[in-house]
Amino acid sequence: MTDHRNLDQGIYIHLVTTREPIKRAFAGTGRSRRREKSSAHWIAQSIVAGIRGNHRIERDGVAIDEAEIVELLADELWKVPEAIAKDFVGIDASKRDDAKAAITHALLTALTSRFECTFFQPEYRGMGPSSYPSCR
Description:
This protein is mainly alpha-helical. It has helices at residues 5-16, 20-27, 37-51, 66-78, 82-88, 93-114; strands at 55-59, 62-63, 116-119. The longest helix is centred in the last third of the chain and has 22 residues, at 93-114.
């Protein structure tokens, strides 16, 4: 089994840092007081944009289109029970943390069960000289 700790952290960070109005619309506690499916799409888009920087997502060695990954994650987000979605934006911090962990686990399971997700370290572009032989 491959270690997907970096992918798990990436999903969690981008899930948590999604703007509050979008999270509230997802939970059904926003302006309209009902769950909005478009908010699941926005959250999924934010997560995919964030994790694609350090992860290669493929099926049988072929890179997967970003739209397909967004659609998968949006569907998984929409399957989250309403109670967990409400806890995700609720006041109680322990319930909120449990909801974040549950949603992250569901998204990670969906991604890793359908695709091959590989973490890679991006090329160093800092101030010092490159350590790559081809750039000397």
